[in-house]
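Re: the pair you flagged

First of the two:
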Amino acid sequence: MAEFDLQIKGGTVVDGTRVPRFRGDVWIKDGKIAQIGGRASGSAQKVIEADGMIVAPGFVDLHTHYDAQIRWDPWCTISGWHGVTSVVLGNCGFGFAPVKPDFRDRSMLTMTRTEAIPYESMKQGMSWDWETIPQYLDSLDRAAKGVNCIQYMPTASLMTYVMGLDAAKTRPATEAERSTMARLLSEGMDAGLCGFSIQRLGKHSAQADFDGSPMVTDTMCDEDILNLARVLAARDEGFIEITQATGHIKEDLAFVENLAATAQRPILFQAITASTRNPDIHRKSLNWLHKARAKGLPIFGQAGTVRSGFAFTLEHWNLYDMAPAWREMTTGTKEEKIKKMHDPAIRAAVKSDRSMYALDKNAPGIGGRLKKLIVQWVENKPELEKYVGKSLGQIGEEEGRHPVDVMIDLALATDLKAEFLQAEPQFNAEFNAEIINSSMYTFPGVSDGGAHTKFFTGGAFTTDFLRWMVRDEQKVTLEEAHYRLSALPAHAAGFRDRGILRQGAAADVVVYDLDGLGIEPDWIGEVTHDLPGGEWRRVQRAKGYHSIIVNGVETFSDGKCTGASPGKLLRHGVAA
């Protein structure tokens, strides 16, 4: 009888701790790593030949929105295809618990807008059998999972549950309400939550609610947040994820420091990103982070290193919400959107200097500058084919029209099906590497996996980081990359036995060919109709992964799903 379940034979081990790579076998038994290197005393039921391949810890993705998708897709693809073996759910303050039964539909409608998750997919793919956080965690525990997960308290859901939606959006909580929220967070922590999350982008949030109003946490007052931070401080456990606006940089970052000082728990701040030409953009963020750390504040920076483009239609696009006129025009049913696009006053407002300034200012994170967008699809209308491949700005110049008029007219002529493609931007490898190499407290991420699936494929960031930063540009060492993709995020988020390969640790492992790593199709992916309710999404599949292992069980072998679902809900960061 075999002594081990798996033997990964002859690979190059990169264990996630920054130890120099070495050649050795890895033996796995009962979901744990039983031995690394040397000669084992027995045989294994299955041998995975890894000669010429890298053997490393599975990747840990701290910023996903797979809260709905994990219910019908246990492997949380596309992340699961790209070596992610552990995810965090409930980011940005958004989620599905606690939720009163009569608010379930409204909570799904919120997610159709703010994270662009298809309503019909949620409606058909989720079976609601919870109201409270403990009930939700029990339900998630029972669900089949192909990855491990931990769960934040979604602060918007908590405030709405206690205060009601209108009150939560229009006033601070009362002392009684704060007491109730603190109690519910503590009860959730008892049940296995890992902390709480917030998106705080102000009244002109880039990710608005279903009705176009800011999300609950976008206008949440400081004291309501610090009230929850004190719960974590009192318990001395948990962490906080925050997406913080930095329009008033000094004041906004001072609040993050106050939050860290109050909670005395890790703060996952996002995002630290690099521009193409100006190093001051990321260096200012890094300097602030290092100064905060020097004060003893436990803040980590999630780096937006993902290279993924945007392709979108005005039927589904929601990332111009920071411009009030665009938010108004693109909110509502399809019929309502079309009616508003015909309105001359609304058309003038979206073309105004104020609106265009807001779009240009935020262009790097929302698909690039509008006038540079390429017309990619015109719904097979022959009279419009002449525009395909041209930018909105080029068409505008040729026809004497504003680029916004070009965009909206094409949308209207195609029943909002005209598709616009982000012109492929340049990425500065040196600046992105500096974000990683010059700080002890940063890691790549902000994949947004599970969100914005009709126009964005950030879940492939792990594969891209390795091929880009490590293999092609050689600006980050392989050892450093695996530390930042696994060990450091696992530490920051409280995963207690994940992120490194060592004897006794959970056997979450990737086996891959570094030279063969790739993403297909590259850039914006391809459309696939594989969501519940007949809905579609964009995907990018992975190349080069020989084996992906979760808790000692293969979930993918040479790119094919095995059907196994060995993932676990990690209450308090550890498997029960």
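Second of the two:
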Amino acid sequence: MKTILIILFLSLFLINLGNQSFAQSDDKLVILHTNLGKIVIEFFPNDAPNHVANFIKLSENGFYDGTIFHRIIPGFMIQGGDPNTKNGDKNTWGIGGPGYSVNAEFNTIKHNRGIVSMARSQDPNSAGSQFFIVHKDSNFLDKQYTVFGRIITQESFDTLDKIASVKTGDKDIPIDTEQVKITKVEVVNRSDVSDLLNLSEPERTTSIVNSSGTQLYENKALDITFKVPEGWLLQEPKKTDENAPDIVAVGPKVGIMNPVISLTVSDTKGKTFDDLINEKNEFIKTVVKSGNLELISQEKSTINEKQAYVTNAKGTFKNNGTSYNVQFREILISTPEKSYTFTYSNGVDNFDEEISRFEESVNSFKISSEPTKETKTDEASINKETKSDVNPTTKEEKGGGCLIATATYGSELAPQVQQLRELRDNSLLQTSSGISFMKSFNTFYYSFSPTIADWERESPIFKETVKITLTPMISSLSILNYVDMDSEAKVIGYGISLILLNVGMYFIAPAMIIHRLRK
């Protein structure tokens, strides 16, 4: 089966290529000429070589000439690079591109002010031409979008502020588009620009939050549930062929690459379990003969009373001229109608560090429609919405989800919601009281959230009403971004205070107003 190589190549695209020097005396810079000033961009080719090459190529070909910054959110970012903004219908702005995509090159550079990063849809490998420039530090985007450059002159920062301050209308589109038009793009040598700022190396993420918890992932369309590691980047990439993964969970990088757990669901097409094994082994033999793969072991097994086939292998794979020693484990689970292939890949030296979490994911796997003897788990269902997609055109699927994420998706509250998610993962879930609270909260919240999320998708008016209703609560919770929650006592104290604050806002204050009006 080709699933093995697809996942291995996906893993390699997620490799962080390190903290190497980025500036060379003769390297290329790009100058964006706009009606509000110039923006000069330098690049990080050692962190995102493919994105840098793509951006420079598009710039040299005049691709960006005449485009506008079509999405502007002051205090967050400005986004441009869509060819549809040259003369297309405004309803198509945000969905245009060069006709191809560039695979993700996530790295450790922080999304601080002035950073240039690629916009994308829910699929991590969907970047094309659209990019965004960070107006104010937005570190909740770190390691989820490909940083490939930064602005590097004082005029660039002044221009960024001017663009961020223009008046906008629906969907954050500027009212006067001529103000924010990119009239011309130049590719020049660094030595040709005299007013460069003396900037240090970009700031990078130094600590990795590697929570030991899990969350229950549920996909109604695929009729499956299984646990995924808490805090891992969960994606549902577009299904390009039957061997492409349906779900991908990407963990924080510790060694040479990010650990990856994926699940691929396929129709058996009438094939028996032994037929699937023979088909898989024939393909593996071909790869082994090519010298790219070393087979360690293969054996039949049983997982949750279902037939399974476990393959362990390792190999040396190249990415941008560098070789990486990669190890993987693949587990094929078969039913008469469907086959389910779980794959875990990581660097050889770090393979054992996450294998237990992979085994937990596999052992928790269930087909939702099948009866089970086990009691219902109290773990939270993971949201199916995207994590603060900078590209606003990602379509939400029906079938439940998080009512908060659905209500705030694409709105001015989306960055705040993502910050609260990061706060939950990085602070709240690091304490026992926080974990206990989230388990209880999720059990209650997800008992009604999917239904309300569906109503929001069906009625824009209802969605707007929910968003307005949630705004005070989200604003009050945002206070936690400015306090230290480094102990159980502080978590409990701040938690009780915010609960009382929200009770006052939503119940006591309205009751007092109604009482006074009635009097």
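DSSP finds eleven helices and 18 strands in the chain.

-B.
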